[in-house]
């Protein structure tokens, strides 16, 4: 298992696979650490045939939702240049560690 640096709500770009030509940053919905996978908004959509469940307030039918893709197929988007970048870390003056973009050096964590 590798070190996962991408977090929920990050903007990422798909760099490999069927969805790499989207060229638009997408939001990470969930990080599945055990499987080294992420759920990305609008990427790898699948159709699930769902049975109605009145107790959980679920209507039946065909539901479209995202399937996880491997974390190596996405790359974080630099907040300044809006281009894909690798991640580094830096320590602030108050002792906090933050993620920084390698491309521009911009701070990613608030």
Strand content: 35-45%
Please state the structural category: mainly beta
The largest sheet has its strands arranged as 6-3-2-1-7
The tally of strands reads 9
Count of alpha/pi helices: 0
Number of domains: 2
Helix content: under 10%
Written description of the protein model:
There is one protein chain. With 110 residues, the protein is mainly beta. It has two domains: 11-77, no CATH class; 83-110, no CATH class. 0% of the residues lie in helices and 38% in strands. Strands 6-3-2-1-7 form a five-stranded antiparallel β-sheet, with no helix packed on it. The chain has a two-stranded antiparallel sheet with strand order 4-5. It is elongated. The mean pLDDT is 92.
Topology, pairings included?
Blueprint: E1 11-14, E2 26-32, E3 37-40, E4 45-50, E5 61-66, E6 69-70, E7 74-76, E8 87-91, E9 97-101
Antiparallel strand pairs: 1-2, 1-7, 2-3, 3-6, 4-5, 8-9
Brief write-up:
The protein is mainly beta.
């Amino acid at each position: 298992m590798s070190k996962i640096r991408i977090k929920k709500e990050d903007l990422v770009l798909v760099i490999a696979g069927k969805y790499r030509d989207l060229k638009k940053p997408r939001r990470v919905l969930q990080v599945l650490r055990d499987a080294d996978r992420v759920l990305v908004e609008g990427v790898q959509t699948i159709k699930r045939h769902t049975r109605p469940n009145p107790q959980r307030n679920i209507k039946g039918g065909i539901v479209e939702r995202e399937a996880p893709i491997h974390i190596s197929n996405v790359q974080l988007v630099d907040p300044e240049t809006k281009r894909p970048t690798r991640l580094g870390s830096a320590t602030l003056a108050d002792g906090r560690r933050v993620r920084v973009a390698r491309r521009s050096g911009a701070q990613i964590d608030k």
